[in-house]
Amino acid sequence: MIWIKLGIILTGFIYAGILPYVTKKTIQHIDIDLSTQTLSFLSNKNLYGKKYVKGYKRLLFATAILVYIFFWLLTEFYDLGKYELLMRYIDYSAALLTLLAFIPHNIQPYSLKHLKMTIQRLMHNLLAVVVFLVLPTLIVIFQITVLPKEQFLGVLGLIIIGITVLLTIFSIIKNGITGFTEIIFINGISVWSIVVTIITFLS
Predict the structure, then answer these.
(1) What's the whole-number average pLDDT of the chain?
(2) Residue 36: inside a domain, yes or no?
(3) 121, CA 20 to 30 Å: which among 25, 46, 154, 194?
């Protein structure tokens, strides 16, 4: 059990820190308007070059792996492996993040003349929306599943992810889906990850 705890601590803090940290460092070095553009624009070769496309791909792929390992370790620690819905959403989340990593963004207008680019843009946008929905759903399912055994963790986790979802929805209503909205979402999940990691370590 101690090794599972150590694994949760390691992956939990890396998972919570890597995306916000790398995102912050990246936007400090490029000219991107987060009030009108999303972070997906970083995967646009025509706008930011191959360097940032490669970095975006690696970051999302690393995040997919960390999501899978972190939640798998949590299910092992809290003995939740028998809950099929939870395990299924862990697979969904990792798979969708991986697909998103390997389907870059583009701003080519939707047109049958550029069918390949149109399909790529449509798939990227659809995947981004689905990831927005699936990740908090995974967290909520985990929280509800663990609630009967760990009431403090269950309630606190639901409060954190609830606030994150509400702030994200408010930002979408006010500003649309922008880089700022994505940062709110990312930071909220990071806070949740840190809290869950600390509570699990102290258990």
Answers:
(1) 86
(2) no
(3) 25
